[in-house]
Amino acid sequence: MTATTTPVLAAGIVCWRVVDGKPRVLLVHRTVHKDVSLPKGKLDPGETLPETAVREIFEETGLRVDLGAPLGHVHYTLANGRDKYVHYWSSEVNDHDLERAKFTPNDEISSLEWLPLSKARKKVSYTHDVDVLDRFAALYEAGNARTFAMIAVRHGKAVPGETWDGPDATRPLMHRGSEQAAIIAGGIAAFAPERIVSSTAARCLATIIPLAERTELVIKSTDDISQDSYAGNGKAVTALVEKRLKKQQSTVLCSHGPVLPQIISALADASHTKPDAQLRAAALLNTGDFSVLHFARDTKKPRLVAVETHHP
After folding, report:
1. What distance in Å separates the CA atoms of residue 289 and residue 308, rounded to the nearest whole number?
2. Apex 288 CA angle, 58 and 54, nearest 5
3. Residues 6 or more apart whose Cβ sits within 8 Å of residue 119
4. How far apart are alpha carbons 69 and 145 in whole angstroms?
5. What is the rounded distance in angstroms from the CA atom of residue 198 to the CA atom of residue 224?
6. Are strands 195-199 and 251-255 parallel, antiparallel or unpaired?
7. Are strands 195-199 and 219-222 parallel, antiparallel or unpaired?
8. Containing H/E element for 30?
9. What pLDDT digit, counting tens, does each position of 239-293 carry?
10. For a Cys staple, 254 with which of 55, 153, 175, 277, CB 3.0–4.6 Å?
11. Is 284 in contact with 262 (CB distance < 8 Å)?
């Protein structure tokens, strides 16, 4: 695949806020293109798409936002023949976010506009933006727009067990594993975690350190999700998951290949969600991968809204 045939990857956000009991969404008026669209931008080298989304929205609008539930992607062909895929998320903007945002018209964006959904659908220049707005409308109308996230992470690439003389729990990350840890830190931070929980194994702790430094969160280590304490019945994992769900705090759980299916299964069971392809993919992570399970906020019982998986 050459540079001219490689698809262009981008990320954007439906920024929304409630005014007089109804949602309004943010549109940008683009200077060069002379069009109206949802804010978005291209993936930079070394980024995951969630990190791209929050970076681009800040650069285009001055808003510092956190990601909510995903809204899927759109695909279209550019004038040069290259395919472009834009992945979208929702993000609620509060009064504090608006107050601290500083927007100045520039060569890329001439102005910003907050509109009710009905007017936004008519104002955007492209039908694929209408599709994304419709997805957000369905999310909002179902009561699933406000969410918190449970983020399952598999540790980065570690020194192979057969070449390590010490206990398995002391195996360190390889250079590739350290690179993976650095790359995914920005992507996970985009979902604004409030708590980091890790296996006590060295490879898990090392994987999550860049995130802890970025978010200034303290890492809580526990044997409950360690490979050394793995138990087939998953009781310890289930108890931990249920506790985190009850608190409704966005939480990172960094663990191991054998334990991750238990974590995902416990999250699905708690929300009475039947396993599907997305949940299976969320459980079978490669080293350095992470999955985000979004749950509706302020519900009596856990309600799973969306599932997404990312790779470094």
Report:
1. 11
2. 5
3. none
4. 7
5. 9
6. parallel
7. parallel
8. strand 22-30
9. 999 999 999 999 999 999 999 999 999 999 999 999 999 999 999 999 999 999 9
10. 153
11. no
